[in-house]
Amino acid sequence: MSYFGANVLHPRTIIPVIQYDIPIVIRNIFNQSAPGTTICRPATEDKDGKRLESSVKGFATIDNLALVNVEGYVFSTGMAGVPGTASSIFGALKDVGANVIMISQASSEHSVCFAVPEKEVKAVAEALQSRFR
User: Fold this and answer.
1) Which H or E run contains 69?
2) Which is higher by pLDDT, 108 or 116?
3) For the chain, which end, N or C, has fewer CB atoms within 10 Å of the first or last residue's CB respectively?
4) Among residues 68, 103, 109, 104, which one has the least CA distance to residue 85?
5) For residue 44, which of 55, 34, 36, 52 has the smallest C-alpha distance?
6) pLDDT of 74 over the 60 cut
7) What is the rounded CA–CA span in Å between residue 73 and residue 110?
8) Which residues is 103 bridged to in the sheet?
9) pLDDT over 60 at 111, yes or no
10) pTM of the predicted model, to two decimals?
11) Phi/psi of residue 64, nearest 5 degrees
Protein backbone atom coordinates (compact mmCIF):
# COMPACT_ATOMS: atom_id res chain seq x y z
CA MET A 1 0.00 0.00 0.00
CA SER A 2 2.87 2.40 0.60
CA TYR A 3 3.59 2.16 -3.15
CA PHE A 4 0.29 3.96 -3.65
CA GLY A 5 0.87 6.56 -0.94
CA ALA A 6 -0.79 4.92 2.03
CA ASN A 7 0.49 5.86 5.47
CA VAL A 8 2.80 3.18 6.81
CA LEU A 9 3.99 5.11 9.85
CA HIS A 10 1.37 6.96 11.84
CA PRO A 11 2.32 10.66 12.09
CA ARG A 12 2.30 10.51 15.91
CA THR A 13 4.96 7.79 15.87
CA ILE A 14 7.28 10.17 14.07
CA ILE A 15 7.27 12.80 16.85
CA PRO A 16 10.01 11.14 18.97
CA VAL A 17 11.94 10.31 15.81
CA ILE A 18 12.10 14.02 14.99
CA GLN A 19 12.71 15.15 18.58
CA TYR A 20 15.63 12.81 19.19
CA ASP A 21 17.04 12.47 15.65
CA ILE A 22 16.30 8.75 15.52
CA PRO A 23 16.94 7.36 12.02
CA ILE A 24 14.23 5.19 10.44
CA VAL A 25 15.42 2.21 8.42
CA ILE A 26 12.95 0.71 5.93
CA ARG A 27 13.81 -2.82 4.84
CA ASN A 28 12.46 -5.06 2.11
CA ILE A 29 10.91 -8.12 3.75
CA PHE A 30 11.32 -10.05 0.50
CA ASN A 31 15.04 -9.20 0.16
CA GLN A 32 16.45 -9.00 3.66
CA SER A 33 20.06 -8.78 2.46
CA ALA A 34 19.31 -5.48 0.70
CA PRO A 35 20.51 -2.37 2.57
CA GLY A 36 17.08 -0.72 2.59
CA THR A 37 16.40 2.99 2.90
CA THR A 38 17.44 5.17 5.81
CA ILE A 39 15.40 8.26 6.59
CA CYS A 40 17.23 10.75 8.78
CA ARG A 41 18.07 14.38 9.12
CA PRO A 42 20.94 15.31 6.84
CA ALA A 43 24.09 16.33 8.65
CA THR A 44 24.52 19.83 7.27
CA GLU A 45 26.64 22.48 8.93
CA ASP A 46 27.26 26.15 8.29
CA LYS A 47 30.71 27.66 7.82
CA ASP A 48 31.23 27.80 11.62
CA GLY A 49 30.46 24.10 12.05
CA LYS A 50 27.01 24.66 13.54
CA ARG A 51 24.28 22.25 12.52
CA LEU A 52 21.70 23.75 10.14
CA GLU A 53 17.99 23.09 10.34
CA SER A 54 16.29 21.02 7.66
CA SER A 55 14.50 22.92 4.91
CA VAL A 56 11.46 20.63 5.29
CA LYS A 57 9.20 22.05 7.98
CA GLY A 58 6.21 19.75 7.63
CA PHE A 59 3.90 17.83 5.39
CA ALA A 60 0.14 17.51 5.00
CA THR A 61 -2.22 14.58 4.92
CA ILE A 62 -5.84 14.28 3.89
CA ASP A 63 -8.08 12.13 6.07
CA ASN A 64 -11.04 10.01 5.02
CA LEU A 65 -9.81 9.14 1.54
CA ALA A 66 -9.87 5.76 -0.15
CA LEU A 67 -7.22 4.62 -2.59
CA VAL A 68 -8.57 2.62 -5.53
CA ASN A 69 -6.19 0.68 -7.75
CA VAL A 70 -7.43 -0.64 -11.10
CA GLU A 71 -4.99 -3.11 -12.57
CA GLY A 72 -4.56 -6.24 -14.61
CA TYR A 73 -6.63 -7.48 -17.46
CA VAL A 74 -9.42 -4.96 -17.57
CA PHE A 75 -9.86 -5.74 -21.25
CA SER A 76 -9.01 -9.00 -22.97
CA THR A 77 -5.62 -7.62 -24.04
CA GLY A 78 -4.79 -5.93 -20.73
CA MET A 79 -4.53 -2.23 -19.95
CA ALA A 80 -1.12 -1.42 -21.41
CA GLY A 81 -1.37 0.42 -24.70
CA VAL A 82 -5.16 0.14 -24.93
CA PRO A 83 -6.60 3.53 -25.90
CA GLY A 84 -9.62 4.60 -23.87
CA THR A 85 -8.88 2.63 -20.69
CA ALA A 86 -8.56 5.74 -18.52
CA SER A 87 -11.60 7.24 -20.23
CA SER A 88 -13.65 4.15 -19.33
CA ILE A 89 -12.44 4.19 -15.74
CA PHE A 90 -13.08 7.87 -15.14
CA GLY A 91 -16.27 7.84 -17.19
CA ALA A 92 -17.66 5.29 -14.73
CA LEU A 93 -16.65 7.57 -11.85
CA LYS A 94 -18.26 10.57 -13.53
CA ASP A 95 -21.48 8.62 -13.95
CA VAL A 96 -21.76 8.15 -10.16
CA GLY A 97 -20.61 11.71 -9.41
CA ALA A 98 -17.40 10.66 -7.66
CA ASN A 99 -14.88 13.35 -6.77
CA VAL A 100 -11.39 12.17 -7.77
CA ILE A 101 -8.79 13.85 -5.55
CA MET A 102 -5.61 12.37 -7.07
CA ILE A 103 -4.65 10.19 -10.04
CA SER A 104 -1.45 8.19 -10.51
CA GLN A 105 -0.47 5.90 -13.37
CA ALA A 106 2.87 4.18 -13.72
CA SER A 107 4.72 4.38 -17.02
CA SER A 108 4.10 0.65 -17.45
CA GLU A 109 0.36 1.39 -17.86
CA HIS A 110 -0.49 -1.79 -15.94
CA SER A 111 -2.48 0.04 -13.30
CA VAL A 112 -4.23 3.30 -12.51
CA CYS A 113 -4.50 4.42 -8.91
CA PHE A 114 -6.73 7.23 -7.68
CA ALA A 115 -8.09 8.66 -4.45
CA VAL A 116 -11.74 9.38 -3.74
CA PRO A 117 -13.54 10.42 -0.56
CA GLU A 118 -14.07 7.37 1.63
CA LYS A 119 -17.85 7.85 1.61
CA GLU A 120 -17.88 7.41 -2.20
CA VAL A 121 -15.76 4.27 -2.46
CA LYS A 122 -18.67 1.80 -2.44
CA ALA A 123 -20.40 3.56 -5.35
CA VAL A 124 -17.05 3.78 -7.18
CA ALA A 125 -16.35 0.07 -6.73
CA GLU A 126 -19.82 -0.88 -7.94
CA ALA A 127 -19.53 1.44 -10.97
CA LEU A 128 -16.14 -0.01 -11.94
CA GLN A 129 -17.31 -3.60 -11.49
CA SER A 130 -20.36 -2.88 -13.61
CA ARG A 131 -18.33 -1.14 -16.34
CA PHE A 132 -15.66 -3.83 -16.64
CA ARG A 133 -17.68 -7.00 -16.11
Assistant:
1) strand 65-71
2) 116
3) C
4) 109
5) 52
6) no
7) 9
8) 114
9) yes
10) 0.53
11) 60, 40
